[in-house]
Amino acid sequence: xxxxxxxxxxxxxxxxxxxxxxxxxxxxxxxxxxxxxxxxxxxxxxxxxxxxxxxxxxxxxxxxxxxxxxxxxxxxxxxxxxxxxxxxxxxxxxxxxxxxxxxxxxxxxxxxxxxxxxxxxxxxxxxxxxxxxxxxxxxxxxxxxxxxxxxxxxxxxxxxxxxxxxxxxxxxxxxxxxxxxxxxxxxxxxxxxxxxxxxxxxxxxxxxxxxxxxxxxxxxxxxxxxxxxxxxxxxxxxxxxxxxxxxxxxxxxxxxxxxxxxxxxxxxxxxxxxxxxxxxxxxxxxxxxxxxxxxxxxxxxxxxxxxxxxxxxxxxxxxxxxxxxxxxxxxxxxxxxxxxxxxxxxxxxxxxxxxxxxxxxxxxxxxxxxx
Length: 371
Prior knowledge:
Strand content: 5-15%
Strand order of the largest sheet: 3-4-2-5
Number of strands: 6
Radius of gyration: 36 Å
Order of helices and strands: HHEHEHEHHHEHEHHEHH
Low-confidence stretches: none
């Protein structure tokens, strides 16, 4: 079989070259449009209990965590930060991607509902006073009760001291001159928002950030002060930054792998042509792989994104064996056609066996629950 393939290559070199490059050329548009899915949940099996629980929570309460917008002022421009926060918050509150926007303390709510923030110690005191009052009333209404002297009314269920404590604690006066979320050094103001989606949906986070940036651009920072600047924070932004860093690393590692492989091949063969031919054949083999990924899956994830570099390192070996065998045959006195024939029959079998064992190793990963 290998001898017949060698004869075909020798007799129809251009046809074989075109047939070898055709899958890569057809796959190239699909590879260009191949997307990287950075959602960590996409790496886990959909039937996993933890994934189901997180999906349930997401349906019930929406997002987890916050997308924070930070307004910085080098010159402590409090007035400008407040004005920008007010205008930006009005725009943010209209976005369907956000559940709520918070950037000021709810003074009225805290004053009217201070009892929701009582400490356990004070709740125990209330319970003790209530219990004493109830016990007294039960005893007083007992048939065995005899009022031998004028009843003083027993213990009083009075909470005025506790009410006074919390009214003073949550009084507007304790917030100082501002109810905005401003840092102690007056250099920044924070706006907290809660998206309706999970922070693992980094594609949606990126679109939300771009939408917020457009709102800020429409408002114009210069209208509120020339020293103002904007930053983003929160777990949503952290995961987006991680995704962008991984995407950059995947691109850099793949490019560096190809460059260094080419340089090493050039150094080993001491000629540019063998290194160039090997690089072309390597691309002809790897590009269709990612084209098939686009066809069957539509995307790659954080793990398979690094396969470009891995497959480049694994795939280049077969070409090296073939060319070294070809050069060895030429050095032994064989003609070019005979050397090609010898390369196919000599290194073809071992290379095919090595390729099959590598393919089986990757195929075993299909049995894993991890995507």
